[in-house]
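# nightly structure sweep
# worker-07 picked up a monomer target from the shared queue
# config: single-sequence mode, recycle default, output format = structure tokens
# input follows
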Amino acid sequence: MRHLIMTTTAALALGTIAASAEEVRVYNWSDYIDEALLEKFETETGLDLIYDVFDSNEVLETKMLAGGSGYDVVVPSGTFLQRQIQAGAFQKLDMSKLPNHANMWDVVSSRTEQYDPDNAYSINYMWGTTGIGANVGKVRELLGEDAPLDSLELVLNPENMEKLSECGVHFLDAPAEMIPMVLKYLGEDPDSHDPEVIAKAEPVFMAIRPYIQKFHSSEYINGLANGDICVAVGWSGDILQARDRAAEADNGVEIVYNAAKEGAQMWFDQMAIPVDAPNPDAAHVFLNFIMDAENMAAASNYVYYANGNKASQEHLVEDVIGDPAIYPDAATLDNLFTTTPYPAKVQRVVTRLWTKIKSGT
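# output follows
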């Protein structure tokens, strides 16, 4: 995991070290920003930026619900944000300090209101879909030319998975996304909070469990790019990063990403300010910097994810704005589903089920 600490050099004045500028502490997902933006932020604002990373919502949530995270800005996904708002973990944004909020995109804001009514506590950073990344050559070699690259059949049919296990399959370690995916495949409501419906996912997973090499939420990027694995169920931008790394390496690996034709989950990563943030003023400075059209575009151009900033779109490279895997067409958008957080009792059921699935026992 990358751990970046970026600080400006304190000036030497009259033989003593001047106090360093105020600092802002940000906790974001790994591999999720152009590091040049972090340096630009420090240069433009004079604030020291302490930037740490995590790679699962569960890790962040443990910190947030324990209180005293020590961070000024954190980046939970929508369902986790909603539960954390209800738990009193965040403070409302002061819109008078966020002039760049006018750049935000109503298409995304109208959907994030499901998690954050009136978008009072958060801004959208990135959004995308959860789908299937595949090494086209290896998958077709094992399953034939008509391999279902755009279907959940690829990864949920045990016959396919048994063959694919020869070249390596990774699944996200994210029960709030993997279980709804299986429910969608079964024709159930992917947002079901009924423990009996949720339990229907277990036999599907257990039938393919012997063929899943690993549950992990970031290793699949390099695994796909290097040809070490041939299929990953993961996040759109991560798989597109793998696609581009493979293309740059010119290693003969061709990666494709598909949001499953049966319907895929749409997710939103939201920037929010903890209720006990050490420096909420600096947090607002950081959010306003991110909402600058050119800065937000630079972040998307680097990580290959769509963002919730309408003004940034004119600054996006064609590889991003013109790629329907990143900015889906209207028909695909209509076929995407969102989920809501599990109540505490149901969450315990899900956690137990996921532990059982991962252990395979």
